[in-house]
Write a structure and sequence with these properties.
By secondary structure, the chain is mostly helical. It is built from 33 helices and no strands. The longest helix is centred in the N-terminal third of the chain and has 17 residues.
Amino acid sequence: MNKSLALLTASLLLAGCQTLAPTPDGSPPVESAESATSKAQPKQYASFSEETLYALLTAELAGQRDRFDIALGNYVQQANATRDPGVAERAFRIAEYLGAEQAALDSALIWSQSAPDSVDAQRAAAVQLARAGRYDEAMLHMEKVLQGQGDTHFDFLALSAAETDPDTRAGLMQSFERLLQKHPNNGQLLFGKALLLHQDGRPEEALELLEGNKASEQQVPPLLLRARLLQGLGRGEEALPLLESGLEKHPDEKRLRLAYARQLVEAKRLDDAKREFSGLVQQFPDDDDLRYSLALVCMEAESWDEAAAYLEELVARGAHADAAHFNLGRLYERRGDSESALIEYALVGPGDDYLPAQVRQTEILFASERAAEASNRLARSRESQPDYAIQLYLIEAEALANRQQHEQAWQVMAQALEQFPGDTNLLYTRAMLAEKRGDLAGLERDLRDIIEREPDNATALNALGYTLADRTTRYDEAKALIERAHRLNPEDAATLDSLGWVNYRLGNLEEAERYLRAALAKFPDHEVAAHLGEVLWAQGRQREARKVWSGALKTQPDSPILRSTIQRLTGSEKL
């Protein structure tokens, strides 16, 4: 191309703010010419050199040919060279669309520096700095937006800090408080601070801040946060009237109506929830997430025909298909139609619902005394979905063990470990089966194998320690193993139970009681109750022991360990 003609064309292109060519999927690569280069007024560019004009023309032509890498590279280069706000903004818009984070940050900073009075430029710089984790600098730019009477994104700054360390969040909180001293009634600042308080685990303070802010009664995001805070504080009944009031002011606000519908589900007002979700689906017929939620609400309400209709519609639309098949399986199970349930579970493909579907298939077949068919199905599934093979072996072994078919489960584990030698999940399961078979040497061998491979495996350490305490007299060795597990996972109820039991074996009754009470508070399990009752009995506190056992029997009346403990200590199965 003749260079003088190219320069003339460049001038025309820049003056008219031409667009880049559309992407292959038909969507624009950046924005329309008006929005990509200017949200309002056409840009007035500075006088450029021939080299700059040529580079910008090349960028525009490259964009028309889907070479957005060249377009971005040229615009970023010229933004740095010219410091022109129009070129910098254009570079930013392209980089933002392409997801080029560093280029977006660099060009946004040039734009904000060269256009200090532009609210859009300062906001773009603030958002990009926040994405880069440079929160203090982001706040400085956002303050300029606030001073320019622009819409700020303090909520974005607060949300972007959610995954950062406490010190970073504390620093950002100080910045918010500094700005609030200057702008005490700014609703966006107050909302941002409330978000930070919520992230810091201070929901009461966040709620108090929002309740004292009139803007939170009118604007949707603060309303939604208030409802969420109330729900988290166990005050969900207060969230419903709040959301109802919000809907009177914003009847077409989707997020608010969705939050209201979900709150109705929490309140067990299922008919009202169905009505709300149904209205949302009618209002947004292409939103299959809403359709799926409506199907689940119908299932919760046991409106089986309605639920089936929505789930089948999802399958036909190809949306949430696996989840729809899984829930259709559940639905047919509830209706007592096992064969239809098996068909639906078999249609669930790889994903979150695949293994639960395999579990349900297996349970149905075992309950119908079709164990061979269950094993055949699982074997075929292992062949067709090798990534799930280990979990499928575990499903089969657990189904067999739950029906006291320990030898068959042992054979399944042998086959699994031949295919996946050294897998810790398989080794652990075989260790538990060895205990059922009375093979303590086999149990110890597998658990020590796991511990050698994974020295910080708290589950294996605790399992071995508890077994040694319960089934041998190697109490000191058992205690050392359990204490290692406790250091790794101090809040685990099973480990606390083991610590209580080994201390009981060692005669440390007060320590045993302390650990067992802590375990029972965290996890009211029948085995823990049996242990605590035995410790209390050994202390001569038979009435307290009977009370603990009686409470556990109400939830686990057929517990073998409770019954055997009571029989052994009292001489009778009855309390």
